[in-house]
Amino acid sequence: MFDQVADGYDRTNTVMTFGNDALWRRATTRAVAPRPGERVLDLGAGTASSSASLAASGADVVAADFSPGMLAEGRRRHGHLPNLSFVEADATDLPFGDDEFDAVTMSYALRNVHDPKMALAELLRVTKPGGRVVINEFSTPPNPVLRGLYRFYNAQVLPRTARLAGTNGEAYDYLNESIAAWPDQRTLAGWMYEAGWTQVAHRNLTFGIVALHRGVKPAS
After folding, report:
1. How far is CA 4 from CA 68, 69, 70, 172, in A?
2. Which of 21-35, 88-102, 167-181 has the lowest mean pLDDT?
């Protein structure tokens, strides 16, 4: 499914989010705060738009995804960046050693993993002690009125918008279902603590439509 939507994925996201996807990507990059010389894993990187934003800092970034179609599109768009590499990977069984990365991040991908708790544990495993994680994911608006409008938009408007943008509408039917089934901010924070992350905190973006969760791997 992800292979099928790869070529129009970024365009459709921009249309569906009214351009907020770029704002959310910048917020994620600021939260990760990559620095030159650091090694950063962008898991579920898709077409590597988030990876390219991270790589602009000078850090060495690995864009990892389980969809070869998405990675191929990412290479086509951003393969010229010398500090950006691409790896096909399963989030629950990462092909990296322990303590390899200074920072790890996932954007709109954790809810697509069949066992997100295992993915959070794998992210912890490959992060250096004292390293950091940032999870950018669709979430639950705290305001009940806005929450109802958001659910209506996802169920009724989003798939139609995707079809008008020339993308597989069925894929975005799935997107709505996955967002509706995804837990709220507090639950995800609890999962991160269970996986072993510390100093877990979250910040809502755009009234809680998206939330940034951050954490730190214990130093010892």
Report:
1. 10, 7, 9, 12
2. 167-181
